[in-house]
Amino acid sequence: MTQRFAFHVSATDGRARTGTIQTPRGEIRTPAFMPVGTAATVKAMLPESVRATGADILLGNTYHLMLRPGAERVARLGGLHRFMNWQRPILTDSGGFQVMSLSGLRKLTEEGVTFASHVDGSRHFLSPETSMQIQRLLGSDIVMAFDECPALPATDAEVAASMRMSMRWAQRSRDAFGDRPGHALFGIMQGGVTRDLRQESAEALRGIGFDGYAIGGLAVGEGQEAMFGVLDYAPGFLPEDKPRYLMGVGKPDDIVGAVVRGVDMMDCVLPSRSGRTGQAWTRRGQVNIKNARHADDPRPLDADCTCPACTGYSRAYLHHVFRSGEMISGMLLTWHNLHYFQELMAGLRAAIAAGSLDAFVADFEAKRAQGDIDPL
Amino acid sequence: MTQRFAFHVSATDGRARTGTIQTPRGEIRTPAFMPVGTAATVKAMLPESVRATGADILLGNTYHLMLRPGAERVARLGGLHRFMNWQRPILTDSGGFQVMSLSGLRKLTEEGVTFASHVDGSRHFLSPETSMQIQRLLGSDIVMAFDECPALPATDAEVAASMRMSMRWAQRSRDAFGDRPGHALFGIMQGGVTRDLRQESAEALRGIGFDGYAIGGLAVGEGQEAMFGVLDYAPGFLPEDKPRYLMGVGKPDDIVGAVVRGVDMMDCVLPSRSGRTGQAWTRRGQVNIKNARHADDPRPLDADCTCPACTGYSRAYLHHVFRSGEMISGMLLTWHNLHYFQELMAGLRAAIAAGSLDAFVADFEAKRAQGDIDPL
């Protein structure tokens, strides 16, 4: 296992790339989907089960962890990997996005953000410097620069002003991060859906220099068409030899569209959150397991899926345990969803390596167009 | 694997016995603790994890399953084993006890009980004949006779009248069960805490003839001393060559006291229910993981335990995920509790086989007397 952080592209197909990120805690196969372990757990899953789905890396949320159990406590307990029993790579976000979306009573200045905890109302301060310190205490392998993402709708002037502050914060993040061999710092491009602002942001980040580059400020309500519009050009503003991470994406078709456009990494709560609300994702689209049509259906969710939910249980069982409010419902559906998302990533990687991404995407779309299996 | 139901005692130590129950679906090592899978799931566990704790058999609740998803539906879907993905033996209760404790609007006659579902208020009827039919539809390996357990407090006359009706119901259960090779029917002794009534009940059951005999009507609020008082004589009223099943028991010290008194099988929701409310059971007693003293404790729940919760996580983590309302809290603590209960049963079996049960019990009590580990 290497002690250095490094990224290698092994094959390309159009703008899509496949490769590996080397870290001291293990290899990340790209394009990679990162399950979200907000509060030091991927909800409804044991970490060995998350690994069994094929995940190489998890995302942890700085905002949640700094509030509960607290970054200093995690550090005293040996760091986040040991705390949550996940020895492979962890990426932590900077806390910036979630402060704006989850906390109360915020005050934003050039220095940083003062906010009230959604857990107990206590006052906290996040800045590039404190975010770097917290992510260091957590022990994350991939640290995200502290940024700000303006709430939509926003004028071009607001988006530009916010992006420029984020770029100043990116420089402060870089300075505060220092030199940490084996750990990586990623900058975050902002600029909304405006090409010039995206380009300006990318140039600012490249000037500072990062180990990887995230595309932030998308998947925040702008819609898939607008998102793909940005992804048609934004990855091209970033260095070829560094990973590109699209934050907070997404649905299976968002993922495919992003990979086709040159994205290497993604994260989303969707597979786990959907699993807990009775929503399953399969190659033939979305299935709402609480629908009465499943009550007597002896067939698996997806006959071609090898996950525990599909190999061990009928739709009738999954329907029954969801309706009965049983925890196994969230456990099995989350497992299935994460399995499907990872299988999709593996398929994308193999197709890029084989130079057959167009055929893979056509097959992906054809299966989705079939819709769920016929009623009994 | 045998196609017949059979019980063999391989060793005794005082009144305690160890042996095996053979069934077409596998062997049950006795004394056995049966985790409860009320609604076709042991809450917060996958069935392969339940098996990994050492469970040979599960209990399913006829009352819950007949209401949701319905016994006919389970039968159409291939039976309860296939439905819930547990291929080993299942014992189902008769529904009698839970109708009285959970349902609404009951009417009890010699014929049976009419009641309203706690799920949707719909009207249902349970009798010895319908209970046998439902348990057959579910496909359970060990079927319980339909009985009635009077609510406490009750006069001796009320307990006697109820017991005698249960004995008439036992005969009707036997008649309705018929001849089902490989499946067993257990009678249930009633009679409260009155020795003469317990003896009368046992004689009635022996006269009918069953594959096993349960001791019912205990662990319903009479207290451990009164329960042990009955267990000092009641198992002796039952045939030596058939399994004796104490229903609804219990805490670890209840289990040890029951095994010492000649009980072969038990069931209880305690390990799984406790796990979901932050209560852990260890060889040193009960631990309330939500207590603030665990927040910074890097030690496992029980350093000598080999379950996933104890080998992978600190008390601090278990405390954090409980306080954060994360599902992994119930998943890990339930697993630990079931593991501990099964380890206790394995220890009891080994001690009986070795003729060292007294020493085992002394050690069990000494460890409990130590109490939980010292605060940090």
TrEMBL record, chains A, B:
Free-text function comment from the UniProt entry: Catalyzes the base-exchange of a guanine (G) residue with the queuine precursor 7-aminomethyl-7-deazaguanine (PreQ1) at position 34 (anticodon wobble position) in tRNAs with GU(N) anticodons (tRNA-Asp, -Asn, -His and -Tyr). Catalysis occurs through a double-displacement mechanism. The nucleophile active site attacks the C1' of nucleotide 34 to detach the guanine base from the RNA, forming a covalent enzyme-RNA intermediate. The proton acceptor active site deprotonates the incoming PreQ1, allowing a nucleophilic attack on the C1' of the ribose to form the product.
Organism: Paracoccus shanxieyensis
Assembly and interaction partners: Homodimer. Within each dimer, one monomer is responsible for RNA recognition and catalysis, while the other monomer binds to the replacement base PreQ1.
Record-given protein name: Queuine tRNA-ribosyltransferase
UniProt keywords, alphabetically: Glycosyltransferase, Metal-binding, Queuosine biosynthesis, Transferase, tRNA processing, Zinc
Sequence segments annotated as region (RNA binding): 248-254
A single MF term (Gene Ontology): tRNA-guanosine(34) queuine transglycosylase activity
Cofactor notes: Binds 1 zinc ion per subunit.
Catalytic activity entry: 7-aminomethyl-7-carbaguanine + guanosine(34) in tRNA = 7-aminomethyl-7-carbaguanosine(34) in tRNA + guanine
Gene that this polypeptide is encoded by: tgt
EC identifiers of the protein: 2.4.2.29
Cofactor: Zn(2+)
